[in-house]
Amino acid sequence: MANLFTAQNILFIPVFLIIISVLVAAHEYGHYLFAKIFKMGVEEFSIGMFGKKPLWTYGRKDYTIPLLPGQVPNIALPEHVGAAGEVVALEGKPNKSEVVETPEGTILKESTFFTVRPWPVGGFVRIKGMIPEEDGSETKIAGGFYSKPPWQRLIVLLAGPVFSVIAGVILIFIVFAFAGEPKADLRPILGGVMGGSPAEKAGLRQGDRIVSIAGDPVNTFFDVITHVRNSPNKQIPVVYVRGDKQLTTTVVPVPDTSETDVLNSEMLPSGKKAIQAKIGTGVGTKYVPIPLGKAAITAIQAPGKAIVMIGGLLAKPAELKDNVGGPISMLKETRSAVDQGLPDVLGLAAMLSISVGILNLLPIPPLDGGQIVIAFAEMFRRGRRLSMKVQNMAVMAGMCLVCLLIIFVFTIDLQRIGKSDIPQFSERNHGKAPAEAPSKP
Known about the structure:
Layout: H1 12-37, E1 42-49, E2 56-66, E3 87-88, E4 94-95, E5 98-102, E6 105-116, E7 119-127, H2 150-179, E8 181-193, H3 198-201, E9 209-213, E10 216-217, H4 221-229, E11 236-242, E12 245-251, E13 254-255, E14 260-263, E15 269-274, E16 277-278, E17 281-288, H5 292-315, H6 327-340, H7 342-359, H8 368-380, H9 388-416
Parallel strand pairs: 1-6
Antiparallel strand pairs: 1-7, 2-6, 3-4, 5-6, 8-17, 9-10, 9-11, 11-12, 13-16, 14-15
Helix pairs in contact: 1-2, 1-6, 1-7, 2-5, 2-7, 2-8, 5-7, 6-7
């Protein structure tokens, strides 16, 4: 991991944070938009998580919601509401729920604050009254989440994942429409070199053109693979060209820890799997112009292919460790995408956004999908809330599963530090089916 954070590579970290922030903003905007449509009060729209005080409050938007008979402006919550029942504003001034009488009835004037919080990975939209209470008083908050019918709550919850998917589809369309369709560059030019890999240790860099391996001339990237994959732990002399200079080095391929796809001459999976040696380099990408119609169709098909890919991974738990990753893997992928160029950065962002949208629909509280299941149950109960006991049990079970998942991906990341093998999701295929994605030798 040390190689990941050298002065030469540190510039990709702002790109990573921008990608995450944009994807979070798209997801949370879905929740925000439909909350406003259904007249829910939104207290805060935040990019970033945690910390009592935001780093930056960059906007404030006033809104009104009706105050119906039997409803209250708010319920005092720790750290959010003052003694008089007013929300403590993020700028240090009280954001009071101002009661106003109008010819159409009583309304509340309130404000949404748009903020950036200290932890840049993540975000949230805080809607009034989203915390269930033992006495059910959350249903009486004017503009509160639980004061609305279950079908409206369901749509608000669903909107976040849907907007994540839409954002990914738009990004894929932009890549295909303006850059073209990504294809494997069959020339023997390194498209990327992983930090800590045998290739990096040998001094190879992205853009190097391989001339010969072990004395044999190299004409295609497939020639590189065929020499490398059958030579585990052997010293292989390599002649390559960088700029106008011809250089030599020696590389020692490292065998995979498990079977991976065997590629054919077109850099596509042949249908066979085997334990192969690799040096941690990637095939280059070239973009071939395509009609706008095909670009649109490909982008629209991307979520379906992502569902098939994720479903395939979940169906084979034993292979998850070779195909998923956490923050460290994402940082490595961002570094590689930045090296490749803007289309690859947008493609990576697109597939992350689609994946986040789909995974958020898993029926596990506190993910959106878990809350959607609760809203569905309450629809069938004709709006009657589930008991606090049932809700607490569901949330606790979901939190345990989420914590186990976090531990799992962090463990995988730590095991990958210093290794040349990487998860297959890293291939930025911009909407292609997983089986079409080229691998790395």
